[in-house]
Amino acid sequence: MDAVTGYSGMRRVLVIGCPGAGKSTFARRLRDAAGLPLHYLDMLWHNPDRTTVTRAEFDERLQRILEEDAWILDGNFARTLPKRLEYCDTVFFLDFPTDVCLEGVEGCSGMKREDMPWVEHEFDEEFRQYIIDFPAERRPQMVDALEDAAARRGVRVHTTSKAELVQALADVLSGLEVGRARACLTFIMYRYATYWASR
Prior knowledge:
- The structure is a single chain.
- With about 200 residues, the chain is an alpha/beta fold.
- It has helices at about 25-35, 40-45, 55-65, 80-85, 100-110, 125-135, 140-155, 165-170, 180-195; strands at about 10-15, 40, 70-75, 90-95, 155-160.
- Residues about 1-5 and about 195-199 have low confidence and may be disordered.
- It is built from nine helices and five strands, in the order E-H-E-H-H-E-H-E-H-H-H-E-H-H.
């Protein structure tokens, strides 16, 4: 099967979740395993000098990607989630507890990242509070949007809160060469184990 065709009907994929959940690492593993083009919403929004593009320019960039035949989009950006859900066929929602997400962000400080145009050396208090508030202030709206997309459009939603993400990923990647599939699974299984250890 051609990689860009996707696996199990997977062609247009969203990877979402609280900062620190491991979205970008997971998205890269999925890209490498399935051969789908990967785009980071942070890279569409931010300039290297830490300024941002206008909303109109961001929306234009996003729309061009959405109209492509196959992609993985990494990032939340709640304002545009409804639009992205109108185009995607699959969502991976990395729904981990707050302490796991805080640990994930702290582990990335000072590292050059493919998904950001600069190196973030400090984990500032405002961002920390955003993560702490995420379950109460942002997660409910996200879950509502996912449930609506699943019911209305048949979008496949895989989330750790349903204890199914690892199996779903294994199903999606079935038929891949074993080494490529294992590379993708190894990361999420580590995060999944961390998730259950915190329950």
